[in-house]
Amino acid sequence: MSDIILKGDKNGFSVIIGVNANYVDAFKELKEMIMQQNVKSTNEDDDVINFTVKTGNRLLNDQQKDDIRELFEKYPQLELKGIETDVESKDEVNKAMKKIQTTVESGIVRSGQKLTYEGDLIFLGTLHRDAQICATGSIYILGEVNGVVQAGYPNNTNAAILGNLQNVDQLRIADVIEIVTDDNRKDFQNGKFAFIDDMHSISLENLTNYKDRLNDLKKRTG
Amino acid sequence: MGISIVVTSGKGGVGKTTTTANVSTVLASLGKKVCMVDLDIGLRNLDAVMGLTNRVVYDIVDVAQHRVVVSQALVRDPRFEDNLYLLAASQFADKYVLDKDSVGTIVEELKQRFDFVMIDCPAGIEYGFQNAVSIADGALVVTNPEVASVSDADRVVGILENMNMPITPHLIINRIRKNMINNGTSMRIDDIVNHLGIPLLGIVIDEDRVISASNAGQTVAFDRDSDAGRSYQHIAKRMLGENIPLDLSDESTKKVGFWGRVFGRH
């Protein structure tokens, strides 16, 4: 049984490394296969042939990936489109999980403290003045906030800050900062949410309209 | 080219921040361009006393570490048109992220733009204090009429004198208790001045209004009914070279007159 399978489709060729194959053998076979192909087509006017290496349930380490890239670089007629795998390393999975996780936080965040979170945050506690909470996703405030609330850190403009916005000093979403002063303080109440509007500035709406806002987002981002 | 003045005391709680805020606001109201710099890293207060906390986005540590330029970190006080700015301290960073060089560069840059750079110094005579005083052209030493405060001020004056600042340090005696002066139980003002041996710039009586004003994010200097406020007005004007005599009876030991006694007014 062969260690690699060559398949063609409209995007070019895929090299699939078999599930039960020994990697060293498979790499050797890939090398030989390419050498044979190259011998057959030496005409420089030929189109470049695209290749994708698919490793299935196997994760290649960086060295192995570099070996494959090096191999293809020797043949100008062959272009490696990518090395694809059906699985992710635990680290990558954990990172992805963290992005979508929701943390529940309670207690007091005091002056000079800054708490940062991956994903969304439900805040039940009290945020004192000169303190800061910061999340990569949205922040839902059920407690009291007097300090700085930062959502969508560092550049997620789809994030929002929802709930009890009364008494907040400063809202930040992605790279936009809204300072709450005596002039605009009346807009910041309980039952509101703040988001980045089409003008790339922070707008406030009633929580009841949040669903419409989410639908808008879906339309915009597809 | 402006001058930099550090407000310092050695002891904590004698009114450095209040003095910085009041003197700065009066100078700004008199048409001078003033920048307040809070160097109390980790325990910043000047922004709160000025009611500007909500406007702080970047701080001096962001500037020192080149994340932003100075002009981006300056917070304008909307009550004083274009005359008063604040460079806030960081509440999150450690004070050791600043050093004399970085603070010096920032203050030098501010001196190009402003007439007065008022530096609010942290309490103590340690690292933060050294950074603050090393780059200043002059100093306001704030003390209270009590032994512990005067003794700390004495230590500070000694350090300042060894630095040979271009402008000799001046003294502000703060939190003078009217009733204690009247019944003779307070330290005497001329004793304090003689003891410390530096020019007296002004005296400020202890008043509830000072605290209520800063609780509201304002400075007492613009409260027409406040003796302390008037003292701060005088201090700022003396800094600009005006010759205002120090009137003890008016500023601190207003004798309760007959009608005052009758109506219980002080």
From TrEMBL, chain A:
SUPFAM superfamilies according to UniProt: Cell-division inhibitor MinC, C-terminal domain
Keywords: Cell cycle, Cell division, Septation
Signal peptide, first to last residue: none
BP-aspect Gene Ontology terms: cell morphogenesis; division septum assembly; regulation of cell septum assembly
Pfam families from the UniProt entry: MinC_C (PF03775), MinC_N_1 (PF22642)
InterPro entries, sorted: CAP/MinC_C, MinC, MinC_C_sf, MinC_N_1, Septum_form_inhib_MinC_C
Superkingdom of origin: Bacteria
Residues covered by the Septum site-determining protein MinC N-terminal domain: 4-83
Entry keyword annotation includes Phosphoprotein: no
Alphabetized Gene3D superfamilies for the sequence: 2.160.20.70, 3.30.160.540
Septum formation inhibitor MinC C-terminal domain segment(s): 108-196
Subunit structure: Interacts with MinD and FtsZ.
Similarity comment text for this entry: Belongs to the MinC family.
Protein name as annotated: Septum site-determining protein
